[in-house]
């Protein structure tokens, strides 16, 4: 799929064949990038998180601003933007435990801003969404109480795009890929609870909203849900360069807004 990105002063547009309207993605301002670049961040994630980190470098490069040092850490570090792989995909509870353990170790010391995210594979149609939400809320409350000087950000779970023909055939044969409508309905339920709980704090990084670009809404069995915009992915789940920059932009703006450097 051909994707065309047009850089603007405050935003850039993405359009692909078949779309009536381009996807607009707002850039962080230069001052936001400067503040975020001086903020010590700890980010817990898995594979889509790698895409987002690639996007961080891309956003700085596109705006001709020196990027912060990004480094995977196991202990203390001098890097500005630190990240760690938490748990394993498909086990959201294990990811929560892993992030809490990281925050309780050397890597969690002297961190200005911290957050973790769930991947699309962590929530699907068979997931007990309420149990995952309750566990996330409890874990975040625990790490916030233990680290009062760290500003924690909250995140929605990542999405997938619509199934392609191959995926639909597999689903019809009973070999689901966790990328179907019912799977994204479950993610929408989780994300709705996250938004209701945390949006008013001003510290929500709405990954799902950035991925859908507010344009890709669907309906399934009476439930409305969003999907990952096809312009922002290369495999229906992970982010391409444009998608990486779109989500990274939201993350960097949130980091700047809640940085003690500001």
Structure explained in plain terms:
By secondary structure, the protein is α/β, with parallel strands linked by helices. The chain has a single domain, classed as Rossmann fold, CATH 3.40.50.1110. The protein has eight helices and twelve strands. It has helices at 30-37, 47-62, 92-103, 129-146, 165-172, 181-198, 207-212, 241-257, and strands at 4-7, 11-15, 23-26, 41-45, 70-72, 81-85, 113-116, 151-152, 154-155, 204-205, 217-220, 223-226. The strands form four sheets. The protein has a five-stranded parallel β-sheet, with helices on both faces. A three-stranded antiparallel β-sheet has the order 1-2-3, with helices on one face. Strands 9-10 form a two-stranded parallel sheet. A hairpin with a 2-residue loop joins strand 11 and strand 12. It is globular, with a radius of gyration of 18 Å.
Summary tags:
single chain; 262 residues; alpha/beta; Rossmann fold; five-stranded parallel sheet; three-stranded antiparallel sheet; 8 helices; 17% strand; GDSL-like lipase/acylhydrolase family protein; SGNH_hydro_sf
